Amino acid sequence: MTLEPFTARVVAIITRIPAGKVMAYGQIAAVAGNPRSARQVSRILHACSEKYALPWHRVINSRWQVSLPGEEQMARLQAEGVRFDRRGCVDPELVLFTGPFP
Predict the structure, then answer these.
(1) Which residues does residue 59 pair with via DSSP β-bridges, in sequence order?
(2) Which residues pair with 38 in a beta bridge?
(3) Residue 46 to residue 48: CA distance in whole angstroms
(4) Which long-range contacts (CB under 8 A, 24 or more apart) does 40-44 make?
(5) What ranges do the domains of the chain cover?
(6) Which fold has domain 5-95?
(7) Against a cut of 0.90, is the pTM above it?
């Protein structure tokens, strides 16, 4: 099964996010060529994470916080060295992945 072009770009971008770094849904959408498709990135992540072994936990929301309920996402990021402040936010200056992208 062949992925749609936007989906393939999103999968490729998420795959490249290294340990200890994060990207926001909207940033991934913009890099993939459709800056208004943050929700589509979320759907792609949900549908493709297991099949493509995506590092889903490295994708956070535009408030620089984890979006998923529970503690697994935050725990995975902390295990990679990502630190959170009292509000549960990361410092994008320290952990934002900015490329290179495919």
Answers:
(1) 23
(2) none
(3) 6
(4) 40/6, 40/10, 41/10, 42/67, 44/7, 44/10, 44/11
(5) 5-95
(6) Arc Repressor Mutant, subunit A (1.10.10)
(7) yes
